[in-house]
Amino acid sequence: MNRTAEERRREIVLAARRDGAVDVTALATGLGVAKETVRRDLRVLEDHGLLRRTHGGAYPVESAGFETTLAFRATSHVPEKRRVAAAAAGLLGDAETVFVDEGYTPQLIAEALPRNRPLTVVTASLPVAGALAEAEGVCVLLLGGRVRRGTLATVDHWTTKMLAGFVLDLAFIGANGISREHGLTTPDPAVSEVKAQAIRAARRVVFAGVHTKFGAAGFCRFADIGALETIVTSTLLPAAEAHRYSLLGPQVLRV
Questions:
Q1: Calpha distance 10→86 (Å, rounded)
Q2: How confident is the model over 152-184, as pLDDT tens digits?
Q3: CB–CB of 97/165 below 8 Å?
Q4: Which residues are registered as beta bridge partners of 122?
Q5: pLDDT of residue 85
Q6: Cα–Cα distance between 214 and 73 in angstroms, integer?
Q7: Torsion of Cα atoms, 177 then 178 then 182 then 183, to 10°
Q8: Residue 47 pLDDT class (50, 70, 90 cuts)
Q9: What's the CA gap between 50 and 62, in Å, rounded?
Q10: 203-216 confidence digits (pLDDT tens)
Q11: Where are the extended beta strands (E) located within 101-176?
Q12: Contact 166, 122 (CB under 8 A)
């Protein structure tokens, strides 16, 4: 079947969203076109903000119409996420009241927090609350609201109103994308509101995320880079790029 370029590119995006990534060679074979045609398609799709290219392929960018589930996030870049989460938890300092965001990396941060000292953790995430609920010395405050199916976290005015009543020592924040131009972004306006409120409530803000988050921009912007005290990521983010982020205010840790 002879597909138009538009049809071919739609198939590529669908495949990337279904499988988590696509490979140039496999796409060329499956679509019956030259590898250079596929590479050209990937460049166009990257320009449109739908994919991010890698060596030999691409992966999908989360958008207003597409967001990965928590279950999928728990299977991708896991060793990198564990390193980042452990380093982020190490920034706790003397904080006694902490917000832990929704998402898999924040969940790993929650699991890495110390259990041998008094700590109050505020979260919208059911998995985070579950990870800490039985920890002796940790008081968990779960924010009420509508539970989003894909991420198992609460949102909407109930959540933000409860959060607005707190003054927090530290917020561990995640995002679907972080870029120097657009700041921190997420696909869903309701999630964006919760994250923005957590940042307003916190004295210190730490962003933790893997290298693939950088340079990506989602639909809803909830913070500028300058709102962050620290960015924690891995050495897979080039040192030169990390330095560019540090010029906007935060310390950047690569682990």
A1: 38
A2: 999 999 999 999 999 999 999 999 999 999 999
A3: no
A4: 99, 141
A5: 97
A6: 16
A7: 120
A8: confident
A9: 8
A10: 999 999 999 899 88
A11: 119-123, 138-142, 146-148, 153-155, 168-173
A12: yes
